[in-house]
């Protein structure tokens, strides 16, 4: 039986860093599901068509990490047919042996409701904006506006809104170093592993 770790949370909460660290620690595969929506947004044209035609090589585009790609992703992510087209790929990935870590917004609620471990990673929006500004070399105040806009869109959409699963453990990384957050996440997984 593969072991699945579902990690959800808002942008720049630290979920990607934790997902990569957990995958390395436990020898699991890792999927950053935000990249799927970023790639669909970046492909242009009809987003439903783009989601249905998406190939793993599309995830390698170098422009997917930008703030614009994040905004475009959150717009296409509100379209139910886009989400439906990406569901099977994510479920298949989650079945990788001996285990997989998926991070996104709806992993614990929709994609992998039976995941062995569910983490909801969060941090205050000002701290997330500072982290993202440092990472992208961008203006902090502008990052804060963009994060708030994206969080609001992701949280209120009708289909698969961003929210913690009822059985998720919430990890607030606002006042944690990366190493402390990783140690805490490893401890949470080891409790059930
Ligand atoms: O995680 P990341 O910032 O790369 O995600 C980009 C956007 O993709 C999010 O703002 C969200 O709208 C969408 N997304 C989603 N469901 C996921 C992962 C990402 O709706 N599982």
CATH topology: Rossmann fold
Hetero compounds = cytidine-5'-monophosphate
Helix percent reads: 40-55%
- So what's the CATH class? Alpha Beta
Main sheet?
5 strands, parallel
Helical/strand content category: alpha/beta
Gyration radius over CA: 16 Å
Beta-strand residue percentage = 5-15%
Main sheet: which strands, in order across?
A: 2-3-1-4-5
Instruction: Please give the CATH architecture.
Output: 3-Layer(aba) Sandwich
| The number of domains | 1
Number of helices in the DSSP assignment: 9
The separation of the N and C termini measures: 12 Å
The sequence of SSEs as H and E is EHEHHHHEHEHHEH
Low-confidence stretches: none
Number of beta-strand segments: 5
What does this structure look like?
- The chain is α/β, with parallel strands linked by helices and 193 residues long.
- The chain has a single domain, classed as Rossmann fold.
- The chain has nine helices and five strands, in the order βαβααααβαβααβα.
- It has helices spanning 15-26, 34-43, 47-53, 67-76, 80-94, 107-111, 125-136, 140-156, 178-192, and strands at 3-8, 29-32, 99-104, 117-122, 169-172.
- It has a five-stranded parallel beta sheet, with helices on both faces.
- α1 crosses α9, α2 (34-43) packs across α3 and α7 crosses α8 (140-156).
- The longest helix is centred in the last third of the chain and has 17 residues, at 140-156.
- The chain is globular, with a radius of gyration of 16 Å.
- The two termini are 12 Å apart.
- The mean pLDDT is 97.
- The site of cytidine-5'-monophosphate (C5P) has 15 residues, from α2, α4 and α8.
């Amino acid at each position: 039986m593969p072991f699945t770790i579902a990690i959800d949370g808002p942008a720049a909460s630290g979920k990607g860093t934790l997902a990569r660290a957990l995958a390395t620690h436990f020898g699991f595969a890792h999927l950053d599901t935000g990249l799927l929506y970023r790639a669909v947004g970046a492909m242009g044209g009809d987003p439903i068509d783009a989601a249905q035609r998406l190939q793993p090589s599309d995830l390698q585009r170098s422009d997917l990490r930008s703030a614009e790609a994040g905004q475009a992703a959150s717009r296409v992510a509100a379209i139910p047919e886009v989400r439906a087209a990406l569901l099977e790929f994510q479920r298949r990935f989650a079945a990788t042996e001996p285990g997989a870590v998926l991070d996104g917004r709806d992993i614990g609620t929709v994609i992998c409701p039976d995941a062995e471990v569910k983490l909801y990673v969060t941090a205050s929006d000002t701290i997330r904006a500072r982290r993202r500004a440092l990472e992208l070399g961008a203006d902090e105040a502008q990052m804060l506006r963009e994060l708030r806009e994206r969080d609001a869109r992701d949280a209120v959409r009708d289909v698969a809104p961003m929210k913690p699963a009822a059985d998720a453990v919430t990890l607030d990384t606002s006042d944690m170093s990366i190493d402390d957050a990783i140690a805490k996440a490893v401890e949470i997984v080891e409790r059930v592993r």
